[in-house]
Amino acid sequence: MFQLTATPQNGLADEPVHIQVTGLPPSQMVTLKASLKDEKGNLFRSKAFYRANEAGEVDVERHPSLGGDYIGVHAMGLFWSLKPEKAFRRLLKRDVINDPFRVTLDLYDSVCLQDSTTAQPRASQMVQRWFSGPGVQRKQIREGRVRGALFLPPGEGPFPGIIDLFGNIGGLVEFRASLLATHGFAVLALAYFAYEDLPEKLLELDLEYFEEAANFLLAHPKIQRPGIGVISVSKGAEVALAMACYLKQVVATVCINGPNAVLDIPLRYRDLLLMPMHYHREHIQTHVSGAVRFRNGNRDPWNELNQQSVLPVEKAQGCILFIVGENDECLDSRAHAEQAMEQLKSHGRSTGKMLVYPGAGHLIEPPYAPLCFASWSTALPCPVLWGGDPVAHAAAQEHSWGEIQKFFRQHFRGTRGKL
Amino acid sequence: MVQLTGTPLSALVDEPVRIRITGLTPFQIVTLQASLKDEKENMFYSHAYYRANKVGEVDLEHDSALGGDYVGVHPMGLFWSLKPEKLSTRLLKRDVMNSPFQVQIKLCDLMLPLENQVTSTSKVSLTLERWYVAPGVTRIQVEEGRLRGALFLPSGEGPFPGVIDLFGGFGGLLEHRSSLLASRGFASLALAYWGYKDLPSQLQKIDLEYFEEASNFLLRHPKIFGPGIGVIATSKGAEIALSMAVHLKQVTATILINGPSSIYGFPHVYHGHTYQPIPYSIQFLSTNALGFIEFHGIYKEIGVEPSQSFLPIEKAHGHFLFIVGEDDKNTNSKEHAKKATEWLKRHGKNNWTLLSYSGAGHLIEPPYSPLCWASKIPNVSTPLHWGGDVIAHAAAQEHSWKEIQKFLRRHLIPMVTSQL
């Protein structure tokens, strides 16, 4: 009898799952399908075709997929190649404490192309993918102006504190903060617009808001002193880099696919005002799918005219890790990170590190998250192109997640406290 | 006063249009948007940003688009970069005789698509008619014997060279290429072979005698001269055309667009003889980043002797024109054409030409047709990824269309030799 196993059945979303099939006829062609419904009822699906070996087994960890949504040996391929049934939907977990994503794995004993409901799977398993571990606590934060959610690991602490910033998606995105908290960090998922009583639209970045958040964290009894870290992506990474430059409280910053200069809207810190780079909307191109490719907006950080917008990274007191997806279609992340690294070097600072991932796109997330190649953006009538080659992007997510945690641990090791 | 002109206002769809703007402020940046509504009310849009020169003019013939759906100097860019509002919708003209496609060109200040085109107001616009048929071309519904299709005859007395036009996995009857060929002087039979009227509803075994009937029908026609006819075919149609070239002496010019070099999936049958197909290896399909299906991997020949699967194309009497889109994601056309041409070379034949286009996809159509990058076919629930880079694909369509006509003329119109 066919047996489909997936271990662990309940696991963290950033942990691998070992999928195996036994009891097949030797050399039988099979189809493995994964499906998931998000909290809004959107369906995401993936499939791969395998040939059982002489012993009638398929081990996704060791055997290659012959075709489907990924080809070759990819233990977690069914997860990171999940695609929305309706194009341009992004998979994003909103409730990270009470509820997991439920992924259904189905086995068909033939090459099954169609996604019709008439073909019945021969075996099925359901795996739960949790975004927080046991004992992680979530606290809604409404202190002063600060709005967000603080995730604390179980135990007394104190824990290294990290602020987590997302980009132009706005609102509050919590899934990365909750996962990091599961790995021993106290993480404040911080909203800065389009959330509760925060401004609906971002017209200006007020760094004092983020300083308030940093001070809030440092005043918390379960959070280590004297410095905090920041993890950030996209627009959030612009904010994080500014924080690193101007706030001495920030001792370790991870910037994922962010600019090294102020973009689109001014940045204010006390009596300092930085104007954004010149932007050429007429250079924006459209991808063949109709998604907009912002990369060519000619935000050239090397251009003389843009120097007044460039962030003074040499002023940063802590360490900075730049994570770059070379196939980022939203921003020329590599050029921005390289200029920041060059700036540090020319000021004799060795506090910067850059990890460049060929083939990775803009939205580098925790491991096994499906590549979001393009998705609808709240502010625009058309989808936005993020880019990325599925296999390379998945590898970048796996590798960078380990590097990010290593970076934070290395930095916080010197200070007191337990990890 | 701002003026937008397009010349000619009414033309064949394979003819270029010259678009110019005057009366702008010097160096003003403008957005040109094209829109089209197809016969099923699907909307298609394209846009590009231009900068006026120092006298406030833009001329698409020599000015460079700065961004939008294409960059660079592309006088017809607004046409071939049209994109469906609903992803993976293919632009296809069904009624080729009685109405053109109407393309509206609008001049806007707004930076589309970032600002919603529904709300964009424009004072300056023009409407161009794009016809699939020239004046005087006649269309005859064909229902002779088993044959089902439409015969397009050029204007005039004739006689004209005859061509059979075959498409592939869409089934039904696609007439837009035949009507254009007729507008260019060829008698073209758009021939259906499945999914149309009383023909089989699913693609099944290919009965070559049906296509032989079609060839004879053409040659019998008083307005068509022989002794040979041409075949122009895409995809699955090209597989059939290859078989026709081998078995039917009447076929003297065969154009194969992105087709396989062997028989796949369903057998070909001819006068009691069955030619076994290579099965499609569906397990080798792949998908792109948006989940659209790429079939180019399914043509692997597993467990089949190359010699027995290969069509004896060295036996063909006529000439071949292989047209390959190197970015074809549906069929590994480049490999197939390579196999076919190497086979011919090995047999001492040089009756072929290969046109291989870097960056072109599967659906190489007449010039200025929008790149159809992905669309659905019957019986497959997920859209197919056809491939193609917008700019390169457009160039391939322009170049190949000229070559197709040259090829047909060279091999179908008998040389008139002097009687001196």
From TrEMBL, chain A:
Catalytic residues (positions): 234, 328, 362
Gene3D superfamilies recorded: Acyl-CoA thioester hydrolase/BAAT N-terminal domain, alpha/beta hydrolase
Coiled-coil residue windows: none
Domain Acyl-CoA thioester hydrolase/bile acid-CoA amino acid N-acetyltransferase: 14-143
One GO cellular component term noted in the UniProt record for this chain: peroxisome
Any GO molecular function: fatty acyl-CoA hydrolase activity
Positions of the BAAT/Acyl-CoA thioester hydrolase C-terminal domain: 206-412
PANTHER family hit by this protein: ACYL-COENZYME A AMINO ACID N-ACYLTRANSFERASE 1-RELATED, ACYL-COENZYME A THIOESTERASE-RELATED
Record family assignment: Belongs to the C/M/P thioester hydrolase family.
Name this polypeptide is given: Acyl-coenzyme A amino acid N-acyltransferase 2-like
UniProt source species: Ictidomys tridecemlineatus
Upper classification of the organism: Eukaryota, Metazoa, Chordata, Craniata, Vertebrata
From TrEMBL, chain B:
GO cellular component terms, semicolon-separated: cytosol; peroxisome
InterPro entries in alphabetical order: AB_hydrolase_fold, Acyl-CoA_thioEstase_long-chain, BAAT_C, Thio_Ohase/aa_AcTrfase, Thio_Ohase/BAAT_N
Gene3D superfamilies (UniProt xref): Acyl-CoA thioester hydrolase/BAAT N-terminal domain, alpha/beta hydrolase
Protein known as: Bile acid-CoA:amino acid N-acyltransferase
Superkingdom of the organism of origin: Eukaryota
Similarity remark: Belongs to the C/M/P thioester hydrolase family.
Source organism per UniProt: Ictidomys tridecemlineatus
Family matches, as PANTHER family: ACYL-COENZYME A THIOESTERASE-RELATED, BILE ACID-COA:AMINO ACID N-ACYLTRANSFERASE
UniProt keyword terms in alphabetical order: Fatty acid metabolism, Lipid metabolism
Signal peptide: none
Active-site positions on this chain: 235 (charge relay system), 328 (charge relay system), 362 (charge relay system)
Biological process, per Gene Ontology: acyl-CoA metabolic process; bile acid biosynthetic process; bile acid conjugation; fatty acid metabolic process; glycine metabolic process; taurine metabolic process
Segments forming domain BAAT/Acyl-CoA thioester hydrolase C-terminal: 206-413
Domain Acyl-CoA thioester hydrolase/bile acid-CoA amino acid N-acetyltransferase: residue ranges: 14-144
